[in-house]
Amino acid sequence: MSGQQEGLAVAADPVELEPPRTLRNAGSPGSEEGVFTHYLRSLRPDGEPQPKAFDALWQALRAAVVGELRRRAAWTSPPSYFGVYGWQSWRTHDRRPGHTGSALEELVTDCYAFVFLERLPRLRAQLVMKPNVDGLVILYLRNYLHDRRKRHDLLGFHVFVSLRLAVRQAVEAGELWIVGGDPKVSNSTILAASPEADHTVGMDGEAIARIVEGWGHALLPELVTAAGSRRRQVVLRLRRLLLDLEAEGAPVVRFKDLVDRLKHCVRASWAASFDLEEGEAAVEGDTPDFAGVARLVQPEAGVEERESFDKLVACVAERVERLGESERARHYLRTFWGFLRAWASGEGPQRLPSSRGLSDLLHIPRKRFPRLWTTLKELVQCCTASLAGRPSEGPGGTEDTP
Amino acid sequence: MTTRVDLLGKTRRAWNRSPVPRRGAGPPAPGDVVVLECTACFDVEWAVLARDPAHPGRLLAVAADGQAMVGSADVAVPASAPGGPLVLRCRFGGWIDGGLIDTATRTATLPQDEVACARDRRAEVERGTVAGSILACEVDDDPEYQDWVAETLEPAWLAFAKTGPVLVPEVDGAAERHGRIVEASAPAWQTAGARSLALAATVLLALGAGLFWRQHQELSDLRDHHQVETEEYRHEIGELRSENGQREDGFRRQLEEAGNERERLESDARLQLEELGQQLDHARRQTVVGNPVALSLDFPRGRRGDERRVYLPTDASHVLFFMTLEGAEPGQTYGAELHDRATGERLWAKGELRPELRELRFGLPRSQLPPGEYLLRILELADGSSELMAEVPLRILAPQARR
Asked: A76, A306, B199, B359: most buried by Cβ count inside 10 Å?
């Protein structure tokens, strides 16, 4: 969804963006029915929403979205991480006469479409059996924002998920202890190398930055490009690195500090590869063709296109494994495809980096890129044909369906 | 641009498209999506996938929900399909008495191809041969998905399993995680007309006992499996710790090696310093003018002069040359070169000499003039080129040769 939303701004004042303590329907004190449930039940027989109920829902939905963004420490992140482009921050408003849009309004509109339009059959089904479906609405909302961030901030998403998984495994194995904050491991979680550690002492930000910078160098590019079971190996390596925290001078750390520093390090390495202007292009002339195929996911893209892109990504990745190339060549193809996937999801400028930039980031010899590119282009074409139901023969294709 | 009016209109259309839940409208059939009372407190529905050919009253059902995350054992029904969007969680299901669904709410009917796809996936789950796509495996490993499974799907499945004689494979220790044991309890339909069907009841009891025994065995196997996994984990932790210790030892060795290397480098640096000191003394000796020997040379007629023999005393530090130039102009620059007369090799050179009162003056360290035969050349320099002006053969004699 792009552009400005006119007439949706029920209350655009930032002071009203704080999530309310409760989402109970103000109109029915003592009722178990929440604002979202009340809205659904108040829909007229022809499905027309009542204006007052819609306004109340809009405020509650916006507050829930802001609360969720804050919970994910994304309230200060660029809106582009959630596929909302053209705005510097969530608080920025369109000051042009007659326009009332903002990044937040765009996101809330998309959330409404996902929860109250796409998921309406599910909500109606649950309404028959349950007095209150507000919890389900919040779950849908969380799930939607999680998925949206994955699609538009693949770098940050992979770092967060890998680190969170590594920490959970380390905690379960008794290698790390949670001494404060969220026991399910989230931004507020405080981790320690021993259960007796004093988590009230100040944490050394400099030490954490130094440690995590080393991790970034040790884990790239696989931290971003690895897929499937290979990602589990990255998580295992990350878990081993967690063992060094105490020895490196950080016996107590907050999960958010770790993940923020690691994201910063990964983003810096990624951006640096695009900054290397000199040198020949990694691939010649075909970038627009590929962009047409790979950039299927645009901010306005619907569910079907997102699913097509997912299938394309999976199809190419699986065909790479079936190629009769050497393991090293397949490793380079996997890595390059992982990079292109992140690039296609909106990470980095429109053009590809130079071969030098790619070589530095992906640890692939420069002379390999032309052949890798040709192979991947053939795979994309075969998979596109296969997904469209046309017969496809080509590299890695032992069968017609992906 | 999406306006409020647009959203209201879309809501109306979505409402009219979504199916109206129908309570108890006909017997349940494969493709039906229902909400069961026993799991109404969880945000899941149940999709009927198949009817048992041997016992038509029994139905295979799996959990279904509207979350967008699709793991390797799940089947996504797209939004464009009837009943979609919906995700069928094929890992969480089992056979259930169709009578229990009579009172449930049917919320949608899925297309048969989606049902067949889910049935295949369920069969893969039961065989343990699920091989999801790369992206589905990523979802399996996503902590957000794991939370959804642990907090909603597993408890809902346990509640579902308690409703009757449900044939369900245990799900990855879900029962232990939620502090419950799955047992086959007496189904409602068994009490409805069991007295007149004693034989059938006996068979069913035997079957129930068999099932209980099988589940007990499965639980026992799972506990054993869990113990083995725990042992493996402990072993892995031990290995990790051991590896960590080895790495620490390695770092210590590297530090020691670095210390040794540092000592060696310091020693080399000391030697280099001493050598530099000696060179400095030598240079100082060359620079300090102690007992210079002055040598006056006439400008030779016909460019090459006669040989000059020079005796240098042992304590002479430098030789100073004075050569008168005929016709030298102010501002003109000259150069002087010393060559080995036998080999022609240039031994010394100096440029940018300017005559003072038509006299060129320059000096050489004594060390540059050991006894031997030399050729001193004077060059006129102009515009980057040089022109030979004069050559004077020199013979430096050893001090004892004078006696």
From this structure: A306
